[in-house]
Amino acid sequence: MANKFVYYFSEGSDAFAGDKVTMKNILGGKGAGLAEMTAAGMPVPQGFTVTTEACTQYYNDGRRINDEIVADIFEHVKGLEKITGKTFGDNSNPLLVSVRSGARMSMPGMMDTILNLGLNDEAVEGLAHKTGNERFAYDSYRRFVQMFSDVVMGVSKTLFEEKIDEMKEARGVSNDVDLTADDLKELVVTFKGIYQDKMGKPFPQDPSEQLIEAIMAVFRSWDNPRANVYRKMNEIPYEWGTAVNVQAMAFGNSGSNSGTGVAFTRNPATGAKGLMGEYLINAQGEDVVAGVRTPSPIAELQKVMPEVYEEFLAIATRLENYFKDMQDMEFTIEDGHLFMLQTRNGKRTAQAALQIAIDLVDEGMITETEAVLRVEPKQLDTLLHPQFDEAALKAAEVIGKGLAASPGSACGQVVFTAEEAEEKVVSKEMPKVVLCRLETSPEDIVGMQVAQGILTVRGGMTSHAAVVARGMGTCCVCGCGNDNEVTMDYEAKTITINGHVFHEGDWISIDGSTGNIYEGQIKTVDATENPNLKRFMSWADERRQLKVLTNADNPTDAQNAMDMGAEGIGLCRTEHMFFAADRIKAVREMICAPDVEARKAALAKVLPFQQQDFTEMFRILDGKPMTIRYLDPPLHEFLPTKAEDIAELAKEMGMTAEALTNIVESLHEFNPMMGHRGCRLAVSYPEIAEMQTTAVINAAITVSRETGVMVTPHIMIPLVGEVKELKYVKDVVVATADKLIAESGLDLKYLVGTMIEIPRAALTADEIAKEAEFFSFGTNDLTQMTFGFSRDDAAKFLGSYYDTKIYESDPFQHVDVKGVGKLVKMAAELGRQTRPGMELGVCGEHGGDASSVEFFHGVGLNYVSCSPFRVPVARLAAAQAAIKDGRN
């Protein structure tokens, strides 16, 4: 076979000759980390990585591992036997392995892991004899039977957990570690019986069969529902696949001198420098992340095993210095010996990402340019999390406290399952929910995604709930049962915290920054400005090429956008000004007017409102540009549809209900988004364009006189598909504007351009550029017209497209580079052929999407425009695009 599909940890670093990007792409993040730690001489249990390309081959071969790859895997098993001195499948000195996933981008908890693989009824006796520790051997075996049954064969883990709980209750103990060797032997028999009952065959005793089944299970988990949800959330391509790491076991469950833990070189919630983590004595890795027992802080390890702690601290420091980033590490201690199982750049909150990036610059570890790449643009959204109102908080009573796992404040109605969370939020029965669980698992990802906050009874700062919530920027309080009297009853749908009973639908408030829990609703307010943000964003702004403007339709939005660092307004949707209560009546009079004169009279009532809004916005902008889109939606949107509403409006307007009904019916269109709207309205009713031009130019004259700085309005004609219609409307604009400017005596300039939102406009952009002085790509409409489906209805069927991998992401969220992107690129090139130096921008929702911004940078646009609170996201995305492109 041409490709190499399996690498020992010891050969990974050399095999890629220092090309860390390719190594991570092929070996996955975990495999690359293991290879680099091995090369650095750190204590890593040895093993091998089955590559991401083998995963792709597995799917190409119909979800099977072909014979050549199987043979290569077992050749590497033989090599691992030589390294460890143990034999796979041996009954006296068995080689046991873990089988773990490892994609190139970290996906914590989304894919599967199997530990203690290689055990069977005979090998467990050999392990007990070899170690002299029968309890440890059978604890490992019962764990393996449960994990293999659940992860590999799909037998519900709940069946096994119920049996463990029954036995603990029968023995009068509270923790798994209190069960004896005989208890664990009994559990193994019970567990194998569950497997036999559910699978119709005995538990597999052949370690070779176990291994191949486990590797295939990890490959399958790349396509499981929770992984698909996580990939879609984090824009991870399906074709990347996952690697599989087969690693000799280090046993943290072999006694009181053993343990396992997870640690970070800096606090992943705040970014504070210093080792932070947790560990459990006499446990295996899944015990820490699953929250089965509440772990101890890593600092306590210094008292329990001082030599191990010092060794771990030294390794952690080396790893951070080597990778020049905060590290997330997994470790196991076996009989007093430390083993490193993983290192990777740690997931962190937005607050922590900013703090770490700035600290690493101040420590001389990275440059400002490198720091700009260390914060994900979408993380900046989470800095704007709501916080509890201080006055409301003073009146609130803290009824419990857990671990502050992910910052922000959340208030919502209590739900107990991920399915309920999704159902209640989507149906709007409960628009805001707090998901309450004993502990979360990867299957809960959909519910976690829609919840305002997450509250768990068990688990620590490195539990699944904590890690995933931090990655999503969702408020989370973990382990509230640690120091409080808490009972959870899933059947009754209640959680009781220190005597306070919450039923499904009751309101609860949680603070992920303090861990506090409150009964009822607490008012929230916008987050205060992060002190690091201004400094960090100045680095980003120095490096970007694209300007970042905002979409704002009123003075309030304009001010918010300026506060967020916008460089102007790239889209002012004038129709949004029409819906205010003091204006809508005049707009409706205009629509219902029987002739031109009546229509002009109605428009004269609208004119002062439009002019006042434009005047205030020009003042706020203080010389920065504003692009004003003329009336775009079909006129029926301004009129009621229900009979009772029509009758009420008719009475207000002094006309019969029948007459108004006739007007409403005459405006009805079968496909209004492709009907009488945009420039077509101005062609039919040029007096609308006259009124809007008058408002724009008069406002510009007023502010220019006030400030002494000439305002240059950008007037945008929407929905153009033919250059002649643009010229017709432009002529109306120019005649009106030039007359007003001449009367003012000012040397006022203005530009007339268009939105490119119809495919025909993109295809004929060279012709349209003869009249248009600028283009702004309206990628919302351009996307729906290119794909031929409505963004309002597409959600009904796009789910099937994601499930079948036809689409990996929503084309209204991330620009479709192959189709819509090609039209944007074509129109940009054609437009500038006709009008060199023509200004080009984007004003659709894609203007605030990081991956889309990178594409627009590559095409050579001048600016993107997005909603005010996404301006920082776009600024950072533009800077990162320039850095990656080498233009900064």
Can you put this structure into words, describing what you see?
With 888 residues, this protein is an alpha/beta fold. It has an 8-stranded mixed β-sheet with strand order 12-22-21-14-15-16-17-13. α1 (9-15) packs across α2 (20-39), α5 packs antiparallel against α6 and α24 runs parallel beside α28 (686-707).
Topology overview:
Layout: E1 6-8, H1 9-15, H2 20-39, E2 47-50, H3 52-60, H4 67-84, E3 97-103, E4 113-117, H5 123-131, H6 134-152, H7 157-171, H8 181-199, H9 207-221, H10 225-234, E5 242-248, E6 259-266, E7 273-281, H11 285-290, E8 296-297, H12 301-304, H13 306-323, E9 327-334, E10 337-345, H14 350-362, H15 368-372, H16 379-382, E11 387-388, H17 390-394, E12 398-401, E13 403-406, E14 409-415, H18 418-426, E15 433-437, H19 445-450, E16 453-456, H20 464-472, E17 475-478, E18 486-489, E19 494-497, E20 500-503, E21 507-511, E22 516-519, E23 524-525, H21 533-543, E24 547-551, H22 555-563, E25 569-573, H23 584-592, H24 596-621, E26 626-629, H25 643-653, H26 657-667, H27 679-684, H28 686-707, E27 714-717, H29 723-744, E28 751-756, H30 759-763, H31 765-768, E29 774-777, H32 779-787, H33 795-803, H34 820-834, E30 839-842, H35 850-859, E31 863-866, H36 871-885
Parallel strand pairs: 14-15, 15-16, 16-17, 24-25, 24-31, 25-26, 26-27, 27-28, 28-29, 29-30, 30-31
Antiparallel strand pairs: 1-2, 2-5, 3-4, 3-5, 6-7, 6-9, 7-8, 9-10, 11-23, 12-22, 13-17, 14-21, 18-19, 19-20, 21-22
Helix pairs in contact: 1-2, 5-6, 6-8, 7-8, 21-36, 22-24, 23-24, 24-28, 25-26, 28-29, 35-36
